[in-house]
Design brief:
The protein is mainly alpha-helical and 407 residues long. It is built from 16 helices and 5 strands.
Amino acid sequence: MNLKVFIRKYKLYFIALIFDLMALTASCLAAGTPFFANVYSHTIYRFGSLLISRITGLLPFSLVEILLYALLVFIPVDLVFQIVSGIRRLTVFIGHLFLILSLLFTLYVFNCGINYRRASFSAEAGLSSVSPDLNEETLTKLCEYLVDNINRSESALYSGNDSAALSVSNVSGEVSPEHTSSDTTVLPVRLYNGAVLGENRFSKKPSLPYLWNTGKAGQAAMEKIGAKFPRLSGHYPFPKPLINSWILSIQQVTGVYSPFTIEANYNRDIPYYDIPFTVCHELSHLRGYMQEEEANFIAILATIGSEDAYFNYSGYVSAWVYAGNALAKADPEKFVELYSRINSYTRQDMQYNNEFWDRYETKIAETQEKLNDAYLKYNGQSTGVLSYGHVVDLMVVYYNENGTLGY
C-alpha cells in the first residue's frame, strides 16, 4: 500500500489526530503558561465566543440539546449502515467516531478548558488581594444583611403599578405557618410588568412567557454588570431552557454551559427563585470565567444589581443559601435566629427547593457529583465540588469593602 492510498484510507483518523494535537498543545501551554491563557481568553476566545453566540443565539431552542439527540441517533444508524456495507467498513465507522470525539475535545479545550487557567474574576476586579477575614462576626453581618434584603425584596415583588390588578390579600407576602409547599393556595407573585406566576408556584412548571421574560432580564442583568466590570462587557445571547430538563434533574444540575455551541442552558424544572441566579451563572461562563465560585459570585452581583425585582430576590436568597450554610457550621444558634427572621414565603421556597432535589437523590446523581468533582480538580480547582462554597469568601470581601452586594 503506497502512502497516498494509506492517507486516503485513513484520512478521518489523520484529521482527528490533527485536532487532538492542536487541543493538547493549547492545553499544555495554558497549564504551563498562565500568560498564554490570559491573552487567549481576552482576544481569540472573546472574539470567537461573541461571534458564535450571536449565531447560535438566533435559535429559540438549545442547539446543543438537539445536536445531542441527533448524535444519539446518528451513531447507531451509522454503525448499522457500515456493517451492512461490509465488515471492512467498520474502520469507517470507527473513523467517524474518532473524528466526532476529537472535534468535541478540541471545541471543549478552546472554548472552555483554557479558560480554567486564566486570571480569576476576583483578581481582575481587585478582590483577590484582600484577605476575606472570614470569621463569625463578619459572616453574621453578611447574613444579617442578606436576611434584611430577602424580606425587603420579597415585599417589593408586590409593589408597582401592575400589582393592583392582583387579588393579594396580604401585601407583605406572609403566609400562614400551616401553609406548606404542597398547598394549592399560595399567593401569586407579580413579575415583569404583569406576568404572574401560577397561583401555585410549586406544582406548575414555568410558562413560556415567564421563561422568555427571565431570559431577557438575564441578558439585561449581565449587560448591566458588564458596564461596571469591563471584562464582563459585551453581548450576551438568550439563555435557553432545555426542552427535556429531566436530563439535568437526574444529575442534580441546575444549568450547563455548552462550549460546543457557546450557549447558556438551564434546567427549566428547578424552583422558580433559582432560575434567575442560574441564568446569570451560566451566562458568566460565556465570558470565560469557568471557576464555579466565581460564576456564583458574578451571578449574585448580577441578580442583586438587576433592575428586575425577582432577580434581586433570587440573588439574595441564593447568596443566603451559601452564606447561611457557612453560618450554620460556625454558629448554629445564630443561624436559627436569622433563619426565623426570614419571611415564611421565602422559607417555603427554600423548603420546596430541598424537596425538589430530594426526589433525585439517586445513584446517577451520586455518580455525576463524583465525576464533576474529578473534572473540577483536573481543571485546577483543588477542592473540587467544595469550590462552589468559596463564593462566601468573595461575598465577605466585597461586602466588607462596599457595605452591599450591589454595585
